[in-house]
C-alpha cells in the first residue's frame, strides 16, 4: 500500500514539473524556425492591421516612472534626448517619486516635463496614472494629450540608441497598437548580473520571439513598451497591482489586441548584481505572477468560448514553475529518487533524469548563440544559492498585496 502511495506522489510531482518543461521545450523549438510572413488568416485571428499608414512621423509621449532612481535617471533622460527624430514629434516626461532635490533640479534644467507626485504608497501604475491625469488638463509643447499617437514606457535605468524612435516609428507605421522592444542587459558586473541577463534573453526567446512566430502575442516586460495612445489612456486607470505589465497584457488580450515583439529595437536595462536585490526582484515578479493567475482565471470560460488563444496561453504561462526553480528542483529530485531507487531496487529515477535533460536542452536552445559559451557555464555555480532565495520568497508571497517592491541600483 505504501509503495502505491509513494509511486502516485512521485508520478504526480513529475507530471507537474513535466508540464512546465514541455511548454518551455515547445516554444524553444518554435524559436528555431525561420520567420515567415504573417498570413491573412493569422492577421484576422489576432486582430492585426498591417497596412502601412500615410503619416511619416508619429508623435510619442515618453514616460519615465522613477521611484528613488537618483543614480540613473538623469543619464537615461539625457541619452534619450539625443534621438535622431524630429524634436517636435516626441516629449519626455519624468514622474519623480521620492527622489532627491538635487536630482529634480538637474531634471528641471532639461527640456522635459517633470512631475513630482507624493504617494502614500508608491507604484508604477500610480505614476503612469498621475502622468495621464496631468495631460488631461495641461497642454504640452502646443499639443493636447489627444494629439500624441503613441506612448512609450521606459524604466529609469533604461538606455536606448539614438535611432530608437526611428525604428519604432517604422513598426508603428505597420499598424501595431502594442509593441514590446528587445530589452537586453547593459551590464555584466558579476555572475548574478550575467545570469539575470541570460534569464531575460531566455524569456525573449520563449515568451516573445517564439510566440510571434506562430501568430501568438508577445509577453510584455514592464519597460521598452509602446502602446497606441488612445488605448493606453482608456485602460491605464484599470491597473491596480504592482504587476502593471501583466495587467496591461491581460487587458490587451481580453480586447484581442495583438502584441508585437521587435527584436531589433534594443532597450538596454541594468541587471541586478547582488543577491538581496535579486531576491527582492524575484519576490515582486512571483507575487505579480500569482496575482495575475488569479485575475486571469475568471475570464477563462469566455476566452475558451470566443477561441481567444492568446488569453488562454497567457493564463497557462502564469501557472508555470519559475525556470531556475524547475532546473534545480528536477536535479534535486533526480538525485533523491536515484538514491531511493538504488536502495529499494526501483527504476523511478529514469523519468526524472530524462526530464532534467529535457529542461537543459530546452534552455540551451533558448539562449542566444553568443551567450551560450562564456556567459552561462562559468556562472552556473551561483544558481543554487539564487534559487534558494527564490524558494524563501514563497513564504513571503501575498497575492492580495499591491505594495510596490523596489529594487535599488548599485552605487
Structural summary, described in words:
- The protein is about 50% helix and about 10% strand.
- It has about 400 residues and is α/β, with parallel strands linked by helices.
- An eight-stranded mixed sheet has the order 3-2-1-4-7-6-8-5, sandwiched between helices.
- Helix 3 links the parallel strand 1 (about 60-65) and strand 2.
- Helix 10 crosses helix 16.
Q: How would you briefly describe this protein structure?
A:
This protein is α/β, with parallel strands linked by helices. It is 52% helix and 12% strand. The protein has an 8-stranded mixed beta sheet with strand order 3-2-1-4-7-6-8-5, sandwiched between helices.
Mean pLDDT, rounded to whole units?
A: 82
Give the helix tally: 16
- The ordered string of helix (H) and strand (E) elements is HHEHEHEHEEHEHEHHEHHHHHHH
How much β-strand is present in the residues? 5-15%
Largest sheet: 8 strands, mixed
Strand segment tally: 8
Spatial sequence of strands, sheet with the most strands: 3-2-1-4-7-6-8-5
Task: Name the overall outline.
Answer: elongated
Distance between the termini: 59 Å
Supply the helix-strand structural class: alpha/beta
Oligomeric form: single chain
Helix content: 40-55%
**Cα radius of gyration in angstroms:** 22 Å
Low-confidence stretches: 38-52, 393-397
Give a topology summary:
Blueprint: H1 2-30, H2 40-46, E1 60-67, H3 73-80, E2 90-97, H4 101-108, E3 113-115, H5 124-137, E4 150-153, E5 159-160, H6 164-172, E6 178-185, H7 191-213, E7 225-228, H8 229-235, H9 244-254, E8 259-269, H10 275-296, H11 300-305, H12 309-318, H13 323-344, H14 349-366, H15 369-376, H16 383-393
Parallel strand pairs: 1-2, 1-4, 2-3, 6-8
Antiparallel strand pairs: 4-7, 5-8, 6-7
Helix pairs in contact: 1-7, 1-14, 9-10, 10-12, 10-16, 13-14
